[in-house]
Write a structure and sequence with these properties.
It is a single chain. 38% of the residues lie in helices and 16% in strands. By secondary structure, the chain is α/β, with parallel strands linked by helices. The protein is globular, with a radius of gyration of 18 Å. Residues 1-10 have low confidence and may be disordered.
């Protein structure tokens, strides 16, 4: 898939015609999210996105109309860390969209301290894992043969060291006892924000593998991608305290939102990309942590996440 830039400097897949398709993109008003929404709309897709801030949603609609023309973006307002809001979003999509051809779970956040959502779930687990899992689960019957589900994850799950100079990678740990109930994950005792974030991304990858297996017979593919380290506010929040004064310099070494989005768009739209249940780091297939391939842990993560999604 070659990439061209339109007047708004967004990567738009060349030769990929998405007219007649519907895409759902979470986190559409963030740095990389705006690029994804604009690129997909520019290729002809009708795009539904979700934001907590109606004003930012209106700004996105105007931006897409200006950059690529047309009125192809619908914005739903919701808090993706809330189970009730996730069900409301899914119900709205189900009532208005008989088919979904592409789902991109792009929403994510890194939080500096421990806190619970209204549902009693640690915030990283809620937003970085359960939001995407719940929407995919609730909308399975809208996914048609050939549909693609792409989840944006992080290579942090393979190495939770904040400063990677020397030493060996340290994959994030996952305690089986905490998989009895998602509310046990990332407890306050011993809470480390970056590890909590990485653990949530690991869970998203694991349950994505499970979804891939369960949906394969229907012709739906489910894959995960680490798009690289993109210069966004999320990455700013991860910079260790002693290095924060250097953030302007560090940003120069990071990918632009357009470069990060290109990896996601490739998985989402490139006909040459085939297969399901894979993890990519940018354009290359990569290995996720050993825990993600543990059948017992994956089954436990799936059952606990599904129980939460349906309020059990």
């Amino acid at each position: 898939m070659s990439v061209a830039r339109d007047a708004g400097a967004h990567p738009v897949p060349v030769g990929v015609d998405l007219r007649g398709t519907t895409a759902l993109v979470t986190g559409g008003t963030g740095g990389m999210g705006r690029v994804l929404v604009t690129a997909l709309a520019g290729a002809g897709a009708d795009v539904v996105t979700v934001t907590r801030d109606p004003a930012r949603g209106r700004e996105l609609v105007a931006r897409v109309a200006r950059d690529v023309g047309g009125d192809r973006v619908q914005v739903l307002t919701a808090d993706l860390s809330s189970r009730a809001d996730l069900h409301a979003v899914a119900e709205r999509v189900r009532s208005e969209r008989p088919e979904l051809h592409l789902v991109v779970h792009n929403a994510g956040a890194h939080f500096p301290d421990h806190a619970l959502t209204v549902d009693g779930v640690e915030r990283h687990v809620a937003l970085d894992h359960l939001a995407g899992f719940t929407l995919t689960t609730l909308l399975e019957d809208r996914l048609r043969a050939g549909a693609r589900v792409v989840t944006v994850v992080s290579a942090a799950m393979n190495d939770t060291r904040r400063v990677r100079i020397g030493g060996r990678p340290r994959p994030v740990r996952l305690e089986p006892a905490q998989l009895d109930d998602v509310r046990l994950l990332n407890p306050a005792a011993g809470f480390v924000p970056f590890e909590a974030y990485a653990r949530a991304k690991l869970l998203a990858t694991m349950c994505g593998y499970e979804h891939a297996g369960r949906l394969a017979a229907s012709g739906v593919t489910v894959n995960a991608v680490h798009p690289g380290i993109v210069g966004t506010p999320l990455v700013d929040a991860m910079v260790p305290g002693p290095l924060r004064a250097l953030r302007p310099l560090l940003r120069r070494a990071l990918l632009t939102p357009e470069a990060g989005a290109a990896s996601v768009l490739r998985l989402a739209t490139d006909p040459a990309v085939t297969g399901t249940g894979h993890y990519y780091e940018r354009a290359a297939r990569a290995e996720s942590p050993p825990a993600s391939h543990d059948a017992r842990l994956r089954a436990m993560a799936w059952e606990a996440s599904r129980a939460w999604a349906f309020g059990r």
